[in-house]
Amino acid sequence: MQQPGRARLGGACTLLALVGCSNGGNGNGPDTTSTPPAATSAGPAAARIVIENFAFTPANLRVRPGTKITVFNRDSVPHTVTAGDKAFDTGNIAGDATATFTAPSASGSYAYICTIHPNMKGTLTVS
Ligand SMILES: [Cu+2]
C-alpha cells in the first residue's frame, strides 16, 4: 500500500529537486551539504575575458584591484593578454585553453594587446 504513494512522492521530489526537496526520508536526499558554490556571486572578486574571432570580449573591462581574471581562448590559435607596460601578461594561451591573471593593485586604465596579433586590443580599468 505504501509503494504507490512513495512512487508518487519520488516523482514529485524529482521535479522539486531543482528548487530543493525537503522530503529526504529515504536516504537519497543530497541536502546534507548545504554550502552552495560561489558561482552565483559574480561580484568584483572574479571576472572573465573571452577571446573569440581575434577579439577580446568585453574589450573594456572594469574590475577591482587584485581581481582574478580568467581568460577563455575560444579560437584555435594561441593568443595573449599582455598589458602595454607588462603590468600583467598571460603569456601564450593555446587554442581552446584558459589562463588566469590577477589585475594590478594600482588603480588605472591598462591597455593590453595580444602580442601575437597586436591589432587585438583591449582595456582593463582598475578602480
Ligand atoms: Cu592573438
TrEMBL record:
Domain of life: Bacteria
A Pfam family the protein falls into: Cupredoxin_1
InterPro entries in alphabetical order: Amicyanin (IPR035668), Cupredoxin (IPR008972), EfeO_Cupredoxin (IPR028096), ET_Amicyanin (IPR052721)
Stretches assigned to coiled coil: none
CDD domains: Amicyanin
Domain EfeO-type cupredoxin-like: 41-126
Protein name as annotated: Metal-binding protein
Organism (species): Streptomyces montanus
